[in-house]
């Protein structure tokens, strides 16, 4: 039960930080900051500790993407990073095919 609480607290804290950053900065800048936070946490060695008790609270965020990039550089195995980069591109591509654009492209 406490695993769920830790996942909720860590994931909620990351969501709160994201919402606070969105008030001041653009979505792209906020995403970049989260990826760099994950890179910094993995470089220092703190990410594994956070991941051990928060599990899905941190593994479903952009922080995990940054940590996966550093892990790939350390180990030389880039399969995790390829999945995390290709899946959102695929979902965006499928959404663009299925949905009509509402905005005007100039």
TrEMBL record:
Instruction: List the Pfam families hit by this protein, alphabetically.
Output: SpoVAC_SpoVAEB
What's the protein here called?
SpoVA/SpoVAEb family sporulation membrane protein
**TM annotation in the entry:** 6-23, 30-50, 81-99
Q: Which UniProt keywords are present, listed alphabetically?
A: Membrane, Transmembrane, Transmembrane helix
